[in-house]
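Most newcomers find our protein records easier to grasp once they have seen one. A learned vocabulary of local backbone shapes supplies the integers on the structure line. Here is such a record, shown just as it appears in the course material:
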Amino acid sequence: MRWILVFFMLPVLSFDVFAASVCTHVDMDWLSQQAPLPGEAKIVYKKDQGGVCEVVLSLDGNLVPLYAGNDFLLVGKLFRDKKFITGQTLDALEDVARRERIKANEKKALEGEKRKAYFKKNLKVLEDLTLFSFNPARADKFLYVVTDPNCSYCKKLMPDLEILAMENHLEIKVILFPVLGPKSRDMAVQAICEKYSYEEYGQIQYQPDTPGCSQAEVLLEKTMPFFSSAGLSFVPVVISGDGTWVVEGNDIVRVKQHLGLASDDQSGASTAESAEGPENQ
């Protein structure tokens, strides 16, 4: 009887060892070797799913399911026997998801307050970085707009700001922060070296191999580290002339609220564009 018992236990033991090894190697270092991940990403869940390790990451307050093998990583949805395994996992992690969203929102709010304090302390630098402005008649107040020439959300925001400026005697001072990559930088150099006006900038088209100039080199050498020090990695951003408020993303409703032109119960969608792609604020 002992020999029979040993015979049946050996497969059980070998299966347990195999199951344990499916996720053993999966940590943040291994995941980062397989795919580019932001530094704040973290693992909140791991489980063997039939020989594949199901991993759930927290990314900026969102839960992202992944599936890892020994030497590969898959992004997608897992079904087994007509059951939506990924959905079941995420449903079970609903409390975790809620906590991660709260923490991410608190972190984002704190970072926003720090940036606002930074900008208010450095208004003179913002003025020095201004390249051109939209200046309607009788403007007696102004806003700074931090933008990237290759940013689609910035281009959607600017016409709304122009209408707001004309109706309320506001000057819009534009600061170029080409954060979205080499093409953005080339377009910023183009605008600086060819001395674009505000109107010309609104019609800018990418011109490959645009020659640089010392003015662009000097200005961008000041601009890039200044905003990096503020922890800014996205555009657009609207800053009041006195630095008392900041709107991150293309939310014209929030801009109007700060100016006393919209009620606080109105809401608008705020979208910004970062080097990693669009992000909701």
